[in-house]
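@channel sequence for tomorrow's demo:
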Amino acid sequence: MLFLFTNERRKELGLEKRWFVRVVGRTRDCPESILGDAILENLDTKKRPTWLLNLGSAPSESFPVPLRNYIKQGERLGLPQRPLISTRKPWFKMEQRKVPPILFAYLGRRNTRFILNEAGILPLTGFLCVYPYSENPRDAEVLWRALNHPATLENLRFVGKSYGEEAIKLEPRSLEDLIIPNLVLGEFELEKPETHKQLTLLEKAKVEKASPKQNGGLVSYRRHKKRAK
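structure tokens (generated this afternoon):
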């Protein structure tokens, strides 16, 4: 827990917000289909850890005294010698990841499995990341609605593993094979990108075998641009 903080602990140690990114680790910490600032504030009130220390390659000597002292505390605990941490240079450097516009709870029993990431958090182990081709927030919202359409959610059973009590688990690469049915594509004005339009016959056969009655497109989509009349 050296890198993950509650807001209360961060304040007690005198560590500034600029050294952190906001995160959510458990799916139960996000009970809604939209993850907004209000949820983060509620988690802070409940003293849930949502602040991840996010340091780069700068030497520890360049950090302010409170942060430098905290890093020394980790060194005294022998953290730099631990297997995974020892591969980092420096040992306290964190992985840099782009904020995903959409999150997917890969193991859950909730009706809504795709979450719109309005708060701009980074997920930990409880979520998969969905990155639309378009970086327009409006396009991300349209894709999120299409993914949460009942006809699309029904297709999760073709690409995931089913467990008891309607739980479905998906591996990271399995989500790429999720089909958005044609009726949903039309409703939300989505189209398949060129890379998916050029599927080989073998890949097309795989899709049709997985869901012969739900012919549509894969999970990576962009919006149609309406033509001027």
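heads up for whoever presents: Residues 198-202, 212-217, 225-229 have pLDDT under 50 and may be disordered.
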